[in-house]
Amino acid sequence: MLLDRPTEVIGVASGKGGVGKTTLSVNLAVALAGLGHKVLLFDADLGLANAQLSLGVRPPYNFSHVLAGTKTLSEIIVRSPQGVMLVPGASGVQKMASIGAQEVGQIVAAFSELDADVDYLIVDAAAGIAESVMLLMAATQRRYIVVRDEPSSIADAYGAIKVLTRDYGLDQLYLVPNMVASQAAGRQLYSRINDVCGRFLGKTLHYLHSIEADEQILNSQRHHRSVLEHAPSSAAARDFRLLAEATRALDPIDGPSGALQFFMERLCGPR
Ligand SMILES: Nc1ncnc2c1ncn2[C@@H]1O[C@H](COP(=O)(O)OP(=O)(O)OP(=O)(O)O)[C@@H](O)[C@H]1O
Ligand SMILES: [Mg+2]
């Protein structure tokens, strides 16, 4: 990307499906746009509650056209009413989870060459720990791991963190507890998981803010809007704004080169 200041690339993963990756990606994108930033959201997921539905846009093309080589990345990008630029996900045609390392390499290259001024690129990944998901995460600078306080979500988040740190050598992992009863409960969940990661993986996770359980999230999705527009004074909207503020308060990471370089080395083999 052509930049005056470097783009911050944030990947959103969870291990387990259905714990709130798309909700977080969309609302964080809208909150950052609301703070005046240029945000590009990449829907790299094929879930039903996908990003375009939540943003209320109906893009004519999607990422399957880029994978097929019939459209360029900049040709498929649409602008949502909230001012977020969206790379629409490939719907149903081809599972992102099943694409290979070669294609992930093409994706990263396409984004690197994108001639757009972007402050934040948010990558809403598919559930699971498929190689394509992990490679995409490796190509980001920070990884937000969404987790709910339930055994299967915690186990799968830990599984994803284990692969990301041990097999891919990645750090900059941020745990984002979702659907928690309170900020105190979210922080406690973070502490529990962080302790286990410290003990068994020798890794420290970062923490910014939790997202409380809020029925306005489902309501907003029914109206194809972010919760920030639908219910700006709700607890969830407040939490996404605070998460966005905490995100932009982070020190910039020195360019994407570390992760990208690592990524290309994995793809092409060490030179
Ligand atoms: N903080 C919250 N409070 C209440 N409901 C929530 C919250 N976060 C997410 N949800 C609900 O949980 C469901 C799953 O969320 P979402 O689609 O964002 O998960 P996902 O991780 O992207 O799923 P997938 O793995 O299928 O892509 C949605 O119905 C959404 O409304
Ligand atoms: Mg999703």
Q: Can you walk me through this structure?
A:
By secondary structure, this protein is α/β, with parallel strands linked by helices. It has one domain: Rossmann fold. It contains twelve helices and nine strands. Strands 1, 2, 3, 4, 5, 6, 7, 8 and 9 form a nine-stranded mixed sheet that branches. Helix 7 links the parallel strand 6 and strand 7. Helix 1 crosses helix 11. The longest helix is centred in the last third of the chain and has 19 residues. It is globular and about 50 Å long. The two termini are about 25 Å apart. The structure holds adenosine-5'-triphosphate and magnesium ion.
Task: Set out the fold topology.
Blueprint: E1 8-13, H1 21-34, E2 39-44, H2 51-55, H3 63-68, H4 73-76, E3 78-79, E4 85-87, H5 101-113, E5 120-125, H6 131-138, E6 142-147, H7 151-167, E7 173-180, H8 183-201, E8 206-207, E9 211-212, H9 215-222, H10 227-230, H11 235-248, H12 257-268
Parallel strand pairs: 1-5, 1-6, 2-4, 2-5, 6-7, 7-8, 7-9
Antiparallel strand pairs: 3-4
Helix pairs in contact: 1-11, 5-12
Query: Structural class of the secondary structure composition?
Result: alpha/beta
Q: How confident is the prediction overall: mean pLDDT? A: 88
- Please identify the oligomeric state: single chain
SSE arrangement, N to C:
EHEHHHEEHEHEHEHEEHHHH
CATH fold name: Rossmann fold
Shape label: globular
Give the distinct bound molecules.
Answer: adenosine-5'-triphosphate, magnesium ion
Annotation field: number of helices = 12
